[in-house]
Amino acid sequence: TVKKPLAGRHVLVTSGPTHEAIDPVRYLANRSSGRQGHAVAAAAAEAGARVTLVSGPVAIPDPAGVTVVRVESAREMLAAVEAALPADLAIFAAAVGDWRPAETRAGKIKKDGSLPAPLQLVENPDILATIAGRSEGRPPLVVGFAAETDDVIGNARRKIARKGCDWIVANDVSAGGGVMGGTENTVHLVAREGGVGKDVETWPKLGKEEVGRRLVARFAELLA
Ligand code: C5P
């Protein structure tokens, strides 16, 4: 028999980049492929959970057995996440754009021989911090991801404190690693100080599918 350690649980996952519109044809984005987030969602479904995957624009297929909510911007992603709650486990793997244009132009900005006005940016909502900080309806287990280039563990610790989540899955995206957009990932699982479980686990380089399965197995243990 296949083990279904997340049977009866609702797992919420964010994945992919966000697109922040400048005008009807242009946007700010990043290089996230959505592979790691989608792999986590697929693994959670395999483990028996009901899964809601809130995904930014990606070019990869929907995972099997998962309800996918497609969004473009960070603000749409936050609204979709809030609409999907309550959840037993929330995993925020999306590469949410930190900033968006202060205004989205209704018409295409024309090339008319002079440069356009400089882009004014404003900060996007932090979805992970918003959900982890809820006094009511906070999922019992809230997990963030962190892409770091140096002091990976130290920065993960500070991120846990700043965002109020329980765990950070930290990956080293320093140049040459090929993590962002690639198919493999070397992750460190970092727990909140004084929280459940061991402080730091460093896993070998693994395919993103395998990372997804192992993460789901660990989180199922923590929820049990
Ligand atoms: O601060 P940083 O972007 O490195 O944090 C990464 C973590 O926070 C990821 O889990 C990401 O999904 C989440 N995040 C978010 N909303 C933002 C920025 C980051 O949910 N606006």
Q: Which SSEs are present, and which pair or pack?
A:
Blueprint (H helix, E strand, L loop, with lengths): L9 E6 L4 E4 L2 E3 L6 H12 L3 E6 L11 E4 L3 H11 L4 E4 L6 E3 L19 E3 L3 H6 L8 E8 L3 H12 L3 E6 L11 E2 L1 E5 L8 E3 L3 E2 H16 L1
Parallel strand pairs: 1-4, 1-6, 4-5, 6-9, 9-10
Antiparallel strand pairs: 2-3, 7-8, 10-12, 11-14, 12-13
Helix pairs in contact: 1-5
Question: How would you explain this protein's 3D organization?
Answer:
With 224 residues, this protein is an alpha/beta fold. 25% of the residues lie in helices and 26% in strands. It contains five helices and 14 strands. The strands form four sheets. Strands 5-4-1-6-9-10-12-13 form an eight-stranded mixed sheet, with helices on both faces. A hairpin with an 8-residue loop joins strand 12 and strand 13. Helix 1 crosses helix 5. The longest helix is centred in the last third of the chain and has 16 residues. The mean pLDDT is 93. Cytidine-5'-monophosphate (C5P) binds next to helix 3 and strand 9. The site of cytidine-5'-monophosphate has 15 residues, from helix 3 and strand 9. Pathway: Cofactor biosynthesis; coenzyme A biosynthesis; CoA from (R)-pantothenate: step 2/5; Cofactor biosynthesis; coenzyme A biosynthesis; CoA from (R)-pantothenate: step 3/5. In the C-terminal section; belongs to the PPC synthetase family. GO terms for molecular function: phosphopantothenate--cysteine ligase activity; phosphopantothenoylcysteine decarboxylase activity. It catalyses: N-[(R)-4-phosphopantothenoyl]-L-cysteine + H(+) = (R)-4'-phosphopantetheine + CO2; (R)-4'-phosphopantothenate + L-cysteine + CTP = N-[(R)-4-phosphopantothenoyl]-L-cysteine + CMP + diphosphate + H(+). Keywords: Decarboxylase, Flavoprotein, FMN, Ligase, Lyase, Magnesium, Metal-binding, Multifunctional enzyme.
